[in-house]
Amino acid sequence: MNQTAPDPTLIDAAADRLMEAVRSRTSIGPLTDDFSFGIDSAYDIQDEVVGRMVGEGQTVVAAKLGLTSRAKQQQMGVAEPLYGWMTDRHRAEPGEPLDSGQLIQPRAEPEIAFLISRDLEGPIGLHDVLGATAAVAPALDILDSRFAGYSFTLADVVADNCSAGAFVVGNPVPLNGIDLSLVGCVFEKNGEVLGTAAGAAVLGHPAAAIAWFVRKLAERGRALPAGTLVLPGALTEAFPIRPGDSLVASFDRIGAIEIAVR
Amino acid sequence: MTDPDLLPPNIVNRLAGRLHEARLGRSPVARLTDSYPNLTEADAYRIADRGVALRMAAGERVVGAKLGFTSEAMRTAMGIDSPNYGWLTDPMIVSDGTVSLGGLIHPKAEPEIGFVLARDLAGGAVSAAEVLAATAFVMPVIEVVDSRFEDFRFRAFDNTADNSSAGMVVLGRRATLPDFDLSRIGVVVYVNGELLYSAAGAAAFGYPAASVAWLVRRLAESGRGLKAGHLVISGGLTGPIELEPGTFVNVEMDRIGSVTMSVHS
Fold first, then answer.
1. In this structure, are strands B108-117 and B62-68 parallel, antiparallel, or unpaired?
2. Pick the CATH number of A8-260 from 3.90.850.10, 3.40.50.2300, 1.20.200.10, 3.40.50.300
3. For B62-264, which CATH superfamily applies?
4. pLDDT by residue for chain B (265 residues), tens digit each?
5. Which of A39, A191, B133, B248 has the fewest other C-beta atoms within 10 Å?
6. A136: enclosing H helix or E strand
């Protein structure tokens, strides 16, 4: 396949729009309405966006995967997931309310977060990921697409850092042989069950999704550094949240994470 | 004395007979509510009871019960505010994991948690905790539902009259004491090796034992109850699984084991 050189004008212009949307908390139209670019360039734009966050003094602390369910992949007409990066600015503290005023159109989804204790790199598989996993933890991923109404192409959402908005992670627990594919999850909002799922909803097994991620990073000559927290993909669909909402994601064997939205 | 709002007994008998014949002849019929738009829930259960009586007259035995409409989304879609139930008879139970489509009209399957009772259970105030205390064991099951109505289309009370679409129940291989929270157990459905659905126990009425407790309280309204040894299947946990000859379904339930089903013509 012919890899075209990144177009610096495109990358700057696209990153400008995305950063301005975050800053002004105002959604924008799809980048692909005005620019023509593929997935590789979309990751270049994402790198630029994340690089600018780091330039502002933020620290990358977590990675997240999207489109890890077959249903979502079919919906978008793609055959693989995508990834993005989150910084200390994205992290919400458990027990403290989530300030939705900082976000444009937040949606929440439950995840099993992984704490990776060793550098991971190259053509690895699920068991390599499990071997490098210090602990797992209940988590909520708060999406916040910069595109109005979550209407975007795959290239748009990759450029938009996988819709990263915020995340909150509960108490870590050691894996201890837990079969994560069978761990049940109940996601409730204001006392009502929004959805249920098991870990297998994430690409068959959440660690398989992380192995995909590491292999994908290798294509860009990168590794997943030890100490990174990884949110490997949603168990249920994402649900819109608004001030006053109380969210609880409970995971069998792992524990629960709760957050109040203000 | 007869209640003027209820269908006369001869009509109840006729409609039960119609559904009974539809099942035996594998020939679906029009919705009862098309001809009887004012059919009440009470009428629907009278028709279902009459249908069970016809099965018992043919030598079948009641071995348990099933719940329907245990998901909020389904109740909203059907415009009702409570689940419904039907009765299970011995020929419906499959213990070797094979289901033949030959005796069915347009079957679909869904995974459920089955409760086998250690003792009789009755009463208008029975709680989920009392259900668990009276439970000998739980097991994963696959329910095969089969509506006797054309195109699998019905209103809520049609479905109740049709014994809640009861078809067959494929039993899992393991029986477990429910000494953990069933609402959080993970459930994964693989069809021909591919993941189709995942869920957790809470998909059945928020808590599977709560749906059994609802059934006991509902039966108490007519002075009835469940018996020791009865199998109660507590409500579908995922969307429907389409079945055709050759379909192989494997359902894994965390902590309580698995159940498989191979489908034949």
1. unpaired
2. 3.90.850.10
3. Fumarylacetoacetase-like, C-terminal domain (3.90.850.10)
4. 456 688 999 999 999 999 999 999 999 999 999 999 999 999 999 999 999 999 999 999 999 999 999 988 888 888 888 999 999 999 999 999 999 999 999 999 999 999 999 999 999 999 999 999 999 999 999 999 999 999 999 999 999 999 999 999 999 988 898 889 999 999 999 999 999 999 999 999 889 999 999 999 999 999 999 999 999 999 999 999 999 999 999 999 999 999 999 999 9
5. A191
6. strand A133-143
ipTM of predicted assembly, 2 dp = 0.90
Is A186–B184 a contact, with Cβ atoms under 8 angstroms apart? yes
Residue A184 and residue B195: Cβ atoms within 8 Å?
no
Instruction: Give the Cβ contact number of residue A227 at 10 Å.
Output: 12
* Minimal CA separation from A195 to chain B, in Å: 7
Q: SS3 of A74, please?
A: helix
pTM of the model: 0.92
H or E, element range at B260: strand B257-264
Determine the 3-state secondary structure of B34 from DSSP: helix
- Closest CA relative to residue B257, chosen from B183, B172, B179: B172
